[in-house]
Amino acid sequence: MKVIVPIIGLGGLSTIAILAILFAGLINAWLGQPLPVLGFEQTFDQPINFPHTKHAGPVTEGGLGMDCTYCHRTVENSSSAHVPAVELCASCHRAIGSENSEELKKLRESAGIYSENNQVIVDPKKASPINWKRVHRLPDHVRFVHSAHINYLTNNPGAIKNIPEHLNIYGKENVLSSEVCSTCHGDVANMEQVHQVEPLKMGQCVNCHRENGGPTDCAACHH
Amino acid sequence: MVIENKDRNWGMVIDTDKCTGCNGCVIACQVENNVPLNDQNKFERGRVMSWMRVERYWEGEFPEVKARFIPIPCQHCANAPCEPVCPVYATYHNNEGMNIQVYNRCVGTRYCANGCPYIVRFFNYWEPIWPEEMRNHLNPDVTVRSRGIMEKCSFCIQRIRRGARKAKEENRELEDGEITTACQDACSTQAITFGDLNDPESKVSKLSKDDRSYTLMPHLNTDPNVIYLASIKENKEEFQEEKANSHD
Ligand code: SF4
Ligand code: SF4
């Protein structure tokens, strides 16, 4: 008896522990976003540590203040925002950037940039795409179209949410495409590592569609 | 600003006199809508999936036989028998006159397929598998349905959405004939016409008032949005007689 009781006790404890973990997993899956205890801003390391802060960050804070649409070029007229091809990175970085930066070395390798006899050569034959990891992913049965949302928000800035501090768009009638992204993506320009800030669940979509008179027909997104 | 949603009534007119039975529409639909491929096993079990099918009839006695073809997509009935039987509202009518199938809502009871008199609903009995080299050809605008889900002709809703979006971005009304379905594009004899039946000026509504027009199984009172034009007979009396006697 003296041996068995602690064993049963241990079994009970571990059962409760396992159930608790399962329950936390269920809640986590239901809410669809990382629980604060598990790390609210959890994201993954990208193959190249691309700093949005340096590129899109405000000039006053040491960024270049580039438009989002400079790299995510198709966002205004296609369903997907597209991650730029490595050639677009190469168009600047064949000349710009430190020789010794580890991240830029990786980029030059991907883009097929090398120097020979003091000349910079871009060899497309040596280029290979960068295997970026996707941060914002919608389920496969949702057809989200960027262009329609950009089109609406640029003409109706009142519906923009999460407006970053450095943007001054209050009271404007029309805004640039790059100034509306924060509604769903947060202030990416100030993120060292891009992470998801909004749950991007159907409830959020439908709420916003209701507020702004968007279609709430199932077949508007699910087909 | 409220986005105005003009109520439409999408409809299709199929001229069976023009149809040559080439099955081009079947293939086009298969490609456009990521419909799984059929193999011998599926045929033998009677579980073929094809949102559009072409039925063949023989007319007359040998040696005076004629083959007649009738392409059958989902009829998008206004009184659809499939809709009230769905326990989870996965299939419903929207304000554009279309019978919608919401894949992520479907739980696979197959009641709707039992209710459909036209047999145009298809159930995914297996996980759809494409050959490796075809996977990059899947249409990104259409969901790939997994096992256990009912599917059917959607009137190429992804094309309707795309057209409507384009018109809105350009701040204009949709024009008649601007939106075409994949089967319509593929039809070499232009037997298929697609458009808004609510617009009296559209090509479909004019064609649908043609003398030759009829719907499939009118006695069931399903009021389909797919309207057929009968094949032309040599004399008019024969046609009128046939139309008067037609039950289904
Ligand atoms: S309208 Fe589109 S979905 Fe329907 S049969 Fe034709 S191609 Fe297929
Ligand atoms: S593509 Fe046109 S002609 Fe060929 S079977 Fe289909 S409807 Fe008939």
Quick summary:
With 223 residues, chain A is mainly alpha-helical.
Output the keywords.
heterodimer, A: mainly alpha, 3 domains, 2 strands, 36% helix, B: 248 residues, alpha+beta, Alpha-Beta Plaits, four-stranded mixed sheet, 7 helices, 17% strand, binds iron/sulfur cluster
Provide an overview of this structure:
- The complex is a heterodimer of chains A (223) and B (248).
- Helix content of chain A is 36%, strand content 4%.
- Chain A has helices at 4-31, 52-56, 68-71, 86-93, 102-111, 146-155, 182-185, 202-212; strands at residues 113-116, 119-122.
- Chain A has a two-stranded antiparallel ribbon.
- Chain A is extended and about 85 Å long.
- Chain B is an alpha+beta fold and 248 residues long.
- Chain B is 21% helix and 17% strand.
- A 4-stranded mixed sheet of chain B has the order 8-1-10-9. A two-stranded antiparallel ribbon of chain B has the order 2-3.
- In chain B, a hairpin with a 5-residue loop joins strand 4 and strand 5.
- In chain B, 33% of the residues are buried.
- Bound molecules: iron/sulfur cluster (SF4) (2 copies).
